[in-house]
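Student: Hello, beginner here. Can you help me understand the protein record under this note? Any guidance would be welcome.
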Amino acid sequence: MSRESSVKQSIPKELRFTVEQFNERFPDNDACLEFLKEKRMPGGVTYCQKCQQERKHHRVTGRPAYACDYCGSMISPMAGTIFEKSPTPLRLWFYAMYLMGSTRCGISAKQIQRETGVTYKTAWRMFRQIRTLLSEDVQLEGDGIEIDETGMGGCSKRLGRSPKPKKTVFGMVERGGRVKAVVAVDRKRDTLFPIIKRYVLPASVIFTDEHPSYDTLGDRNDYTHHRINHSAGVYVMGDVHTNTIDGFWSLIKRGIGGVYHNVSEKYLPSYLDEYSFRYNRRHSGNLIFNSILEKVYEKASLRPVPRSDQKPAGSSPALEVPF
């Protein structure tokens, strides 16, 4: 038995997607463009704005676009996506998404710069654009929803600088399931309750600590509420605990502290979305990259048609191509 075959893999075979497999699947820009084309207009068939009907489109030589077989008007699979109007090669975008999906604790724009060879400014823009895809409007439910708030960011008084207070981050997680984390103005009841009602479905069982803002959570809403008293040194009492959400906070804080070192208030929500996106797919192995790719063309398909012409019912989303 070879040494390679005897090494135990922590990721099941069906959930692996290695760099070698990535290079085989997306060897160049054309392969990436063809992938987007098949996702947004399967077989090259899509709605032609000029012909006002479904038409077959073929690739235009030397351009990242496809032309209508009948009238010649061009469309691009990249229109409406984060790749639109970007001079960065499409394959580098795909590779940056692969890196962000493969990591467990996060990856910095500096590392993307080193891996792809682009400038830091370009790497940061790619990094920020990709994170815009990772926001999810989830609805949590079940008999085990843990809720907690924590502080992130800020800085202490040092080197003559004025101290900055930490931002309140509020999180809700299904035991064994999904998580949603948002930035809150404060930890008051009137701030937290609307967030809970938005993301946690009625009739759910909620577990919290002894924070006073949760005092009337079970009375004023259609929830079953259980509490654990951390101030008394009690952290688990049967199935009453908040260890799951505490573990998620630890994951984010260690990731931000070790990889990014500090996060500004402006971009904190996008970092929360990034960590939540990976956490919600933690059982997907290296296939998280595929989930990010899906977000690219899903969000592009939601882009409104830029003109008032009406499409026939059932036609595919229009692809805006201002050539």
